[in-house]
Amino acid sequence: MIIRREVLLSIAVALLVAACGGAESQPGGEEMETSQPPPLPPDVGNPSPQVVLETNMGAIVMELDREAAPNTVDNVIEHVENGFYDGLLFHRVMPGFMIQTGSFTSGLQERQSPRPPLRNEANNGLKNVRGSVAMARTPDPHSATAGFYINLVDNRGLDFTAETTTGWGYAVFGKVITGMDVVDAIAEIRTEARPPFENLPVRQVIIEKAYIKGD
After folding, report:
1. Among 40, 122, 131, which Cα is nearest to 79's?
2. Which residue of 51, 63, 86, 206 is surrounded by the most CB atoms within 10 Å?
3. Distances (CA, A) of 191 to 70, 103, 187, 203
4. 196 preceded by cis ω (within 30°)?
5. 71-129 pLDDT, tens digit each
6. Could you report the per-residue pLDDT of 60-69, keeping only the tens digit for each?
């Protein structure tokens, strides 16, 4: 049973790395935009801002950790305040692993982030445990922009181990504090392979509105 669990985890990690690349994330082989990105939000005083994701299946509240992942949190806050996540799908659902969003509209059109890729902050001590929220990326460790995922279980194989291409891991920047029942319900939706998507829910789960709690 232990061997089977390790094999399944290694397959899941490979799927996450492969699926975060190509058509579902940053296009491979294309040069990044060189235009000046919009400024980050001026209010950076709250060390633990809370982001509410109002979905068509219920609300998910995420508490972000600005102290551990300052650049990642500021980046996500900027996307939230500019309405970037409004109307996007949870486009990858993998039971026993994670659910992912931040890239595609209900029409399965990719929404490109206006911001440049982030330097990976996975070496911040936070772990990919159940309920934690982390940045999705391509095989390039420093390619995350707007996509993120919520861990359904403890996925320690995604954690930082070394500042190498294979060791960087995935940057955790927060956790779900309310709505894990919604997250688990999303994970129960049947999925299908619809190229280029491999784990697309047959029932669309849409972020109707994302906002900072208290704004």
Report:
1. 40
2. 51
3. 34, 17, 9, 8
4. yes
5. 999 999 999 999 999 999 999 999 999 999 999 999 999 999 999 999 999 999 999 99
6. 999 999 999 9
CB neighbours (10 Å) of residue 67? 10
Burial pattern 160-191, b for ≥16 Cβ within 10 A else e, equals: beeeeeeebbbbbbbbbeebbebbeebbebeb
* Integer Cα distance of 17 and 38 in angstroms: 28
Type of residue found at 12: A
Residues 6+ apart with CB under 8 A from 84: 111, 113, 114, 146, 210
Q: Note the pTM of the prediction, 2 decimals.
A: 0.83
In degrees and rounded to multiples of 5, residue 34 shows phi and psi of -105, 0
Structure tokens at 185: 């319900």
Kindly provide the b/e burial profile for residues 70-88, where b requires at least 16 CB atoms within 10 angstroms of the residue's own CB: eebbbbbbbbbbeebbbbb
Q: Name the H helices within the chain.
A: 2-19, 70-81, 180-187
Give the chain's length.
215
Q: Taking the CB of residue 28, how many other CB atoms lie within 10 A of it?
A: 12
